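tool_call: predict_structure(chain=1)
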Amino acid sequence: MAQMGFKQTLSKGLRSFGGVKISHSAVLTYTALILVLFVAFTVRVLPMRWEIPSGTLGLNEFDPYYQYTATNHMVQNGLLSLYLPHPWIDTQQFYPQGLDFSGVLPSLPTTAAILYDIVHALGANIDVMSFCSILAPILGTIAVFVLYFVGKDYGGKSVGLLAALILALSPSVIQRSSLGFFDTETVGILGLLLFVFAFLRAIEPQRSLRSMTIYSLVAAGALFYFAAGWGAAYYLVGLAALFVFVLIIAKRYTQRLLLSYSITFGLGFFLAIIVPFLSVHYLTSGVVLPIAGVFALLCLAEVYRAKISARGKTIFVIALLAILIGGFAAVAAKGGVSNIAEKFGTVLNPLQRSALPIIASVAEQRITSWAEIYSEVGIGVLFFLMGLYFMIKNPSNRNIFLVIFGLTALYFTGSMVRLLVVLAPASALLGSMAVSGLLKPFNTLLKESGSQALTKSKRSLQKVGREFGVIGIVIVFILIISTLAYTPWIGYQQNNLPSGAPRVYGAVYSPITISVASLPIAPNEPVPQWRNMVSWTRNNLQATTVVSSWWDYGDWLGMFGNVTTLCDNTTTNTTQIENVAYSMMANETQSLKMLANYNVSYVLVFVTVKLKLSSDQTQITGVQFAGYGDEGKWPWMARISGEAQTRFISDTTFGQSWMNSNYSWTNDTTFATTQINNSTGQQSVVWTDMGLNSTVYKLMYNAESQYASRYQIPASETAATTPTYFTPAYIAGLELTPTASAQYGLLVPLVALYKINWAAYNADTNSTVTITP
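tool_result:
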């Protein structure tokens, strides 16, 4: 009895800890939420196992290095150092003009710099890059936390928990918030969810004026944070304008809506135009202007509900229309109406993408297939549709917003695969509401006091046992688990996962890109070839040494390798990218004519090769291009430079034309064609003479042939002549033996750096090119 009394006393004490009584349901809710957040964070830091051997945490993919550079400069020189006393231009990037960092969207680097300074002041010994790497999972977890409250507002704690869990395990969101993915989506999704949470609360009719004002201010701050952090804020602006417009059309206008809308967008845009990259021109973009139009409609709605004469209403309407039309015409006449960037234009109209090879060449900007959407949502597609049904059936303000959110997110996701991260929270909310709606009748059955419950049918009253409630709940539970936990067998193969591994692992259980040398595998240990290359350039070259490469690798060479590069993933100077593409696809003489204008000393190519086995899988019979390096990217080099054919023919940039009727191209077919073997169905690339003499092919084949020669393996590609003016300086990957390559699936990454022999070029062409180290 004494022991029982102690347990009761302890339980009572815990429930009323701190003088606040905590119910059992609250304890369960908080425990479940903490577990969801723990899972969200833990899953996102799984790639750390490959980073520990390297001794530091790197950044994933390529774009995050731009954000890191801005953050590091802020940490070293102050938060405003990108802008004041003058714009900071990094001349190691996009040499010789340099990269103007005053054009960076500041939300992410500013957040990281402030938090880093706080952590550093508290005594934590961590470098800036490692901090940026771990910050991505932290912000991703916070976004999951915010979605819990959004879902809770929709359908209670259970809906909030389920929505948070779905977002925590969403493959696309995990990819964009996992270890090292220090990019704009991390703050973008957080800003989006904060806006949705605050704005929907602000327009609730039962809230006091004070509460409405507070939530409107929070929504304005979230709007500013989103706009100053991710270009996809255009979507949020358009979504909000469409939502309020629908409310007006549906005769759901209230004075509270006008006040909240005015505070949110008035203050949000006022703060946004302070950002140098956005400026006042942001307000005149074609996507933002509808906000003003909807505001005018809100004013009209307020006038019509006000107790003023018909003549007064007419005068007000005419005056308002005159101001709007006149103001728009004046701005348009002066060229003030600005278009959004081409990248965002292709989201609205994906058919434009084929005409823009620089945009189409980026994998994350391609059109999304239905298979990819299903892979993201899984069986949740059914819950998505059911959620739409339940929302339309009960068209409250919140539900109308969720319907518009879901449908627009689905459209834009189909237009660009990168925007799967926008679909994820909409899908999580709709799916959670669908599950809640589906379980209500089964839950009612379980709560009935008797062994049976009465339910209506169209013809009669039927007796339904409580066991049907249990069966229904179990079926829904199994469907949810199958969506969150398991992936098709092909998913295991593509991600090197064991059979039965949780589905979510496929999105995150792999090394960051540089630690796996850009190979599509998940090895037991890091693949060191790219790290070896950047270590070699850092120790053997000067920071002013110009190295030309395809733009994917510009950040790695600049940030890690500490050399000067011509282009990188910021793609701010498309003309220079076209010139670099030309230097890759042109023959050696033409290539060096171009590179001479950029003071280039070295050219780097990245080629992946795969070892071929005999039919009995016992002997290595050859080595061939695998397609994961420049041997897979050269068609984009050809298309991007070919798109500039008119300029290369007519424009005398650097004092001469670059193409003529006998030497020009518009796409990759000039260099190679693809043939299919009718008997085997296998594809093969057949190179033309122009392709075999292109600089990029010569350098790629040279790297492959050196590897094949070292290990006495036949090279399977069509032989190219030895480069005349390029001498291998260092090829990372030659040390990887065929036996050792087995751990990488017989793939060998070769990062080949060539030094340009300018003396030989000058002698052969009577040139006087002088390169400054």
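agent: Residues 349-494 form one domain. Proceeding to next step.
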